[in-house]
Amino acid sequence: MKPLDFNTVLFALTVLCIGLGLVFAISRLLTRVLKPRFSPHHLLLAQKSCLYVGIVLVICTTLIQLHVNLTAVLGAAGIVTVAIGFAAQTSLSNLISGLFLLGERPFEVGDTIIVGGTRGVVLSIDLLSVKLRTVDNLFVRMPNETLIKAEVTTVTRFPIRRMDINIGVAYKEDVKKVIRVLREVADANPHSLNEPVPLVLFKDFGASSLDFLLGVWFEKSKFLDLKNGIMQDIKERFDAEGIEIAFPHLTVYAGSETPAFPVTVTKETDELKK
Predict the structure, then answer these.
(1) Do 64 and 109 have their domain in common?
(2) 186 and 230 in contact (C-beta within 8 Å)?
(3) Which of 53, 51, 144 lies closest to 104, judged by CA?
(4) Are the C-beta atoms of residues 62 and 20 closer than 8 Å to each other?
(5) 3-class SS at 245?
């Protein structure tokens, strides 16, 4: 390696500073240009690829200006990488998992996902972790390895969804009437889609009720509007039609050979009121 003079070092530092500035500027410009044409997921992937490749090129150019033998540097970097890999297996696993997430695309930036007991909107997909914002505005960082191993539900993957509402009515009610009322409630709701048609199913004979399932299809952005509105509509229509919504009943049976339980009815006294 040749001895370095001040001008060479100054020039190399200038190349490093200007190069990094250009890389970040090009990355931001690329984001603005591609934003109208690409999804947030592809936009993030393109931005990070441009950023990482540009930084590597600038560093290599700076080392060349300093008359550094890149072959030796790459060889040493390989040895260091192996050593770091053994020392930081978790980080390396997250890095590889992040590449799989970017390639497989089980979800994109802006999607709502459920992982375990956590539900939130994807803010970013990085090489080591995924950032989420929960419905109550909390910030959650999940390691990529966790997402690769866990079951991930992408709530907003498809443009429409179905909301399933379980309803129990009293055993005395007319099944056909309940089905008709539920279908009319679904058809009348402005957020319920006509196609696919709503599903009304007589599910089961429950412990204290006749159990029905109402499945309503809706646009994914209308979840809260439909949820709040259709629950109120069901209650109002059931009250208007005289349909009793069931509640748990408890019957105590002591057997035919056992005498009935004695029941004593007393009047409320002033002392009990106190």
Answers:
(1) no
(2) yes
(3) 144
(4) no
(5) strand
In a domain, 13, yes or no: yes
User: Which tens digits make up the pLDDT trace of 176-190?
Assistant: 999 999 999 999 999
Q: Do the beta carbons of residue 168 and residue 245 sit within 8 Å?
A: yes
Distance separating the N- and C-terminal Cα atoms of the chain: 98
Structural domains counted in the chain: 3
State the residue range of the domain holding 30: 6-87
What is the H or E stretch that residue 204 is in?
strand 199-205
pTM: 0.59
- From 239, 176, 168, 241, select the one nearest 206 (Cα to Cα): 168
How much is the pLDDT for 253? 64
Q: What is the pLDDT of residues 212-244, one digit of tens each?
A: 999 999 998 888 889 889 999 999 999 999 999
Three-state secondary structure readout of 134-167: ECCCCEEEEEHHHHHHCCEEECCCCCEEEEEEEE
Are 193 and 217 contacting, i.e. CB atoms less than 8 angstroms apart? yes
State the residue for tokens 């309940």.
Answer: 178
Tokens 């592809």 identify what position?
Answer: 42
pLDDT band for position 87 (cuts 50, 70, 90): very low
To the nearest 10°, report the CA torsion of 7, 54, 131, 96. -110
Quickly tell me which residue has 């949820």 as its tokens: 227
Residue with tokens 């994914």: 220
CATH at 131: 2.30.30.60
Q: Estimate the share of the chain in helix, then strand, then coil, as percent rounded to the nearest 5.
A: 50, 20, 30
Comparing C-alpha atoms, which of 74, 149, 150 is closest to residue 114?
150
In a domain, 193, yes or no: yes
Task: Assess contact for 206 and 249: CB atoms under 8 A.
Answer: no
Residue 5 gets which letter from DSSP? -
